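Ticket 4471: requesting a sanity check on a complex prediction with beta-D-glucopyranose. Repro inputs:
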Amino acid sequence: MNVFGVDIGGSGIKGAPVDLERGDLAEPRHKVLTPQPATPDGVAGCVVEVVRHFGWTGPVGVTFPGVVTGSTIRTAANVDKGWIGVDAGRMLSERLGGLPVTVLNDADAAGVAEMTFGAGRGRKGTVILLTLGTGIGSAVFVDGKLLPNTELGHLELKGHDAEKRASSKAREDEDLSWEHWATKRVQKYLAHVEMLFSPELFIIGGGVSRKADRFLPLIKGIRAEIVPAELQNNAGIVGAAMAATAEKAGAPRR
Ligand code: BGC
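Returned structure tokens:
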């Protein structure tokens, strides 16, 4: 069965029909640049463009880079603050001519996809996926069950918002070496998260996970196993589609 997934990111909005048996895109994805500022109206127009590109008329799952309760946006750290309080599910459904729309946090979507089809497959106990990108997203699982909206990217690290120090954007903006970023930023961040949750496994996602060999081997002193995400760029799209199917089947989403 195919269901449509859309991933709203700080720089791009991308989507494709997803083959839920394989956990992979059924067709090459379509991507448009995120409008700046990323207002609800501007982003909704892009979501419509991505969905229409495929002539899609079924259920749609959408990720959002902030806290989502029900289908209402509660925080917007790296997108326009006009999103806060918007019922994104209802708004996007209206813009899509009434298609059913399910909305969830971007890292939660990526985590759900990784736990089913990627690096977390079959893993029990506490597993934490962290996406290192523009911000830091988190998805916490216990025996495969998601605790949604954990927002561990906003833990405090040395008096700063952790994502401002350990995200991939922080490495680029501050022109940090891989070694400095890995040992002084990511390792310290992981140690802090490990102190709080003692997970068995950390899965590191986000675009930078493609370059995992440049920084994961440099990280020392963490008890948990640390592995790169396997679905990489498509995890959000796949997880969004999975969430839309769960909702359609009437299963409790969270
Ligand atoms: C947001 C999270 C999001 C993460 C990755 C953070 O700034 O607060 O909700 O998952 O960025 O996009």
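Notes from triage: The chain has two domains: 2-105+234-248, 109-231. Leaving this open until the requester confirms.
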